[in-house]
Amino acid sequence: MDTELQPLLGALAGKEQIQIGAWTFWRGRIAGKTVVVSRTEVGSVNASTATTLAIVNFRPRLIINQGTAGAAIPDLKLFDIVVGEATVDYGAFRSTHADAGAGVDLSRWTPMPHRLRLDGKERVAFDRFPGDPAAVDAALKVANPRGRVVKGIIGTAFEFNREVDRLVWMNKTYGVVSEDMESAYAAGTATGFKTPFVAIRIISDSDFLGTEFQPVAGEYCAAFVLELIRRL
Predict the structure, then answer these.
(1) Rounded CA gap, 48 and 139, in Å?
(2) Mean of the pLDDT values across residues 89-116?
(3) Domain at 190, CATH number
(4) Is 45 within the bounds of a domain?
(5) Residue 5: inside a domain, yes or no?
(6) What is the DSSP string of 20-61?
(7) pLDDT exceeds 80 at position 1
(8) Are 93 and 110 in contact (CB under 8 A)?
(9) What's the burial of 115, exposed, middle or buried (CB within 10 Å: 0-12/13-18/19+)?
(10) In 3D, which of 179, 191, 205, 200 has the Cα closest to residue 79?
């Protein structure tokens, strides 16, 4: 969203705005590098489409998907930053049969992988999408003046979960430490195009700690990513 872009747009020299369908991009330079900023918008359709358009039109050497996330474990505090060693779609699952009236039981739900036919060959199953190791290492070396920088599995679904038991189940079942609505969808798209990718998310809210969503977190994450771009 716009609040998650301002430090990046402010640093973009020679800025050129490019509109493709419903998605907006800005191209310019940061620290001597050509950079394209995408207003990816929210959710699975937006994330996959904006990432596809970015790859096809701009052919990036690296995609950094960044923004806010909710904590999926109690250890993460407000403004901590998670660097995605991997991303996973925690809304991908199948359930076993239950008769009418048996209720909804998460113990009957098991993760289901995404499958990509890389190079048009046999389908490959991805239970998660790995982050680019070099980009992950570089991000872990950038200081976060407002909290920690940790490596973890970033979870994604077009959901906003406020039930602590559901968050605990997500962590136990998928290993996720945070939840957002875009990272894994963008990562899967990048994997299909064999484009290096890393997700970086700042904790903007935590139902474990009773912390409501803090919009300013988006600006803090963009500032962190801006410093990463300068160092790459």
Answers:
(1) 23
(2) 90
(3) 3.40.50.1580
(4) no
(5) no
(6) ETTEEEEEEEETTEEEEEEE--SSHHHHHHHHHHHHHHH--S
(7) no
(8) yes
(9) exposed
(10) 205
- Judged by average pLDDT, the poorest of 92-96, 154-158, 177-181, 198-202 is 92-96
Residue 132 counted as domain residue: yes
- Pull the structure tokens for residue 61: 């050497």
User: What region does 98 belong to: left with phi over 0, alpha with psi -120 to 50, or beta?
Assistant: beta
pTM of the predicted protein model: 0.93
What values do phi and psi take at 218, rounded to 5?
-60, -40
| Higher per-residue confidence, 119 vs 177 | 177
Q: Containing domain of residue 149, as a range? A: 61-231
Which are the contacts of 134, defined by CB distance < 8 A and separation ≥ 6?
Answer: 196
Q: In the chain, how many domains are there? A: 1
Show the tokens assigned to 52. 């596809």
Residue 116 within any structural domain of the chain: yes
Predicted confidence at residue 77, as pLDDT, reads: 96
CA-CA distance, 15 to 28, in Å (whole number)? 5
Q: Specify the DSSP element, H or E, that contains 14.
A: strand 13-20
Closest to 129 (Cα-Cα) out of 118, 120, 139, 140: 118
For residue 92, pLDDT beyond 90: no
CA 50 remoteness from chain centre = 13
